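Q: Convert this sequence to structure tokens.
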Amino acid sequence: MQDQYQRNIGYMRISVTDRCNLRCQYCMPHGMQWLEHSQILTYEEIVRLARIAITLGIRRFKLTGGEPLVRHDLVGLVSQLSSLEGCEQVTLTSNGILLAEQAEALAQAGLQAVNISLDTLDRAQYKAITGQDALDKVLESIQASLQAGLKVKINTVLLQENESQLVRLASLAQNQPVDVRFIELMPIGSGAQGRGLSPHKARKRLKQHWPDLADVQEKRGNGPAHYQASAGLQGRIGWIEAVSHTFCNECNRIRLTSTGQLKPCLCYEHGMDFRALLRGGASDEELAAQMRQLIFEKPKAHCFEDAGQITEHRQMVQIGG
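A:
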């Protein structure tokens, strides 16, 4: 369906948990209190909301967290979602720690693609950023996902401390069909205190290594990334620049948090409590009407360029990556 600014909203990011097995500095600070399991939407509730969303024209879903694979039987949820009439795509974002052992089962259940978070290929730096010595598991998951037939994208957050790693990370696209995307640090939660690296500076470094790196007009997913290609790379290099190059006029998404809040924009606290509606006995028709209204009222743009206007103060892991 369209919102009030005639944008087609057809994509929903669904957080299934606030928990994660890593402690990335810009996402999940130490000392966070986990939610009680009763506060998290059940799989049945998620599937019901997805079924209703499909009737409104939302046909593509991405499962996020926290780390979605720490929740029991995510394969079962993927199977239920991909089996819904009208569902066009189910994808996943993961840190890759548990992915290798589940990649084949996820693909068989209907998963089509996975985004794997990886900010460095230096083992010591990986441990410093994430709190875990688990780089080998992530690299294994990349290969397992490719072998399972999944489309694979690597997501790297641009940090001042990983600038020296950018060429090594981009080189993952050299001899395999993997896209490597560089994401501008967003001023949400701990990210507001982080030391981000400018995409302009990152592009300049990559251009020194691949002088023919140039923009391509390709749609390679549901999100806002724009891509570049080089004759020396099999995959593409993607850029997601929410702050310096806004893409709000093309935004096609809404977010469902693990607690059931439906958010039309990441920047603002505003949303609707669908957990309360579900558990209060709302009918499918009532849920659809509330969802339709929230989507229609989606804000015109975020306000990341003006931190004083940001009203969302939760950590990214509490919202859904």
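The first strand starts at residue 11 and ends at 15.
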